């Protein structure tokens, strides 16, 4: 139904705004630009959050498509399955949603990553669409979809974990506190379990020099150069960011759904009152 797409869009925007500074910090740490403390100092240099919000236009620009796809495909797929309320149905629907949205997510995250990692003097536009056009102009469509395979490998299982764990935690309790907490924990869990894949994706998409031939080559060279610890680098920032961002996302989705249900109930009640008034009316009332 259309509500799934609308709620997903609103929830995604709320999650991006809440969590983008920590996402920027995550990308800087993953790319080897220093420890969490060093990267935090660099991002807050100047006393503002402008650097931390660099590249926010790309995810916000694409979030209407990405989160609408996620929640729209998830909701409609789940309802089409034989037992839509089972955890298995939630998992299958989540995996399919993650696979489909990867085709929109990969180019959006590529632009975001390039903008987050831009160095002084590099020619990389700051706007979402201008950044995408720049990549297309300099590298073509293959450059814009660089990292698509590793994005699918991350997102399909991640959304399976995401929706199953969230649904398991909110059963019997849909209060705001429970929804926020369950959404945050579900997001954090999916990121923690698949974090090494995200590290490879960030390094691969941020590679403007052509050091890596692909995802496996990126993984192999990263471990050879920085050791196995690089696969967990930045996990603290991403866990906090995932909790805040996904808690805000699910809260906004739940709020949108409740607002829609109240509107439908109000309209139904009003229609019933009007219908009752017309039914009880008498033709003599209108006689001159």
Automatic annotation (TrEMBL):
Q: Name one Pfam family in it.
A: Mito_carr
GO cellular component annotations, sorted alphabetically? mitochondrial membrane
The record gives the membrane topology as: Multi-pass membrane protein
One BP term from GO: mitochondrial L-ornithine transmembrane transport
User: Where found, per UniProt?
Assistant: Mitochondrion membrane
Q: Which Gene3D superfamilies match?
A: Mitochondrial carrier domain (1.50.40.10)
A GO term for molecular function: high-affinity L-arginine transmembrane transporter activity
Q: Which InterPro entries match?
A: MCP, MCP_dom_sf, MCP_transmembrane, Mitochondrial_Carrier
- Which keywords does this Swiss-Prot/TrEMBL entry list? Membrane, Mitochondrion, Repeat, Transmembrane, Transmembrane helix, Transport
Query: Which PANTHER family does the annotation name?
Result: MITOCHONDRIAL BASIC AMINO ACIDS TRANSPORTER, MITOCHONDRIAL BASIC AMINO ACIDS TRANSPORTER-RELATED
Q: What family classification does the UniProt entry report for this protein?
A: Belongs to the mitochondrial carrier (TC 2.A.29) family.
Protein name in UniProt: Mitochondrial carnitine/acylcarnitine carrier protein CACL
Organism, scientific name: Danaus plexippus plexippus
The top of its lineage is: Eukaryota, Metazoa, Ecdysozoa, Arthropoda, Hexapoda
């Amino acid at each position: 139904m259309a509500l799934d797409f609308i709620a997903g869009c609103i929830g995604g925007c709320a999650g991006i705004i809440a969590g983008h500074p920590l996402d920027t910090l995550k990308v800087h740490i993953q790319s080897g630009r220093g420890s969490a403390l060093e990267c935090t100092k660099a991002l807050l240099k100047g006393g503002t959050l402008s650097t931390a919000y660099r590249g926010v236009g790309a995810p916000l620009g694409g979030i209407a498509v990405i989160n609408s796809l996620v929640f729209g495909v998830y909701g409609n797929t789940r309802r089409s399955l034989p037992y839509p309320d089972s955890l298995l149905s939630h998992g299958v629907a989540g995996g399919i949603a993650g696979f489909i949205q990867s085709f929109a997510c990969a180019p959006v995250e590529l632009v975001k990553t390039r903008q987050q990692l831009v160095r002084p003097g590099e020619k990389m536009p700051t706007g979402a669409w201008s950044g995408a056009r720049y990549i297309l102009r300099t590298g073509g469509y293959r450059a814009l979809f660089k990292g698509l395979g590793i994005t699918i490998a991350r997102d399909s299982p991640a959304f399976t974990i995401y929706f199953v764990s969230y649904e398991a935690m909110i059963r019997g309790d849909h209060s705001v506190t429970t929804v926020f907490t369950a959404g945050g924990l579900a997001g954090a869990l999916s990121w923690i379990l698949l974090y090494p894949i995200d590290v490879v994706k960030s390094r691969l998409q941020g590679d403007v020099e052509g050091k890596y031939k692909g995802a496996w080559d990126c993984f192999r060279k990263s471990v050879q150069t920085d050791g196995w610890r690089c696969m967990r680098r930045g996990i603290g920032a991403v866990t906090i960011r995932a909790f805040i961002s996904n808690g805000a996302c699910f809260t906004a989705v739940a709020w949108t759904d409740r607002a829609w249900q109240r509107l439908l109930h109000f309209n139904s009640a009003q229609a019933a009152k009007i219908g009752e008034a017309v039914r009880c009316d008498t033709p003599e009332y209108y006689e001159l």
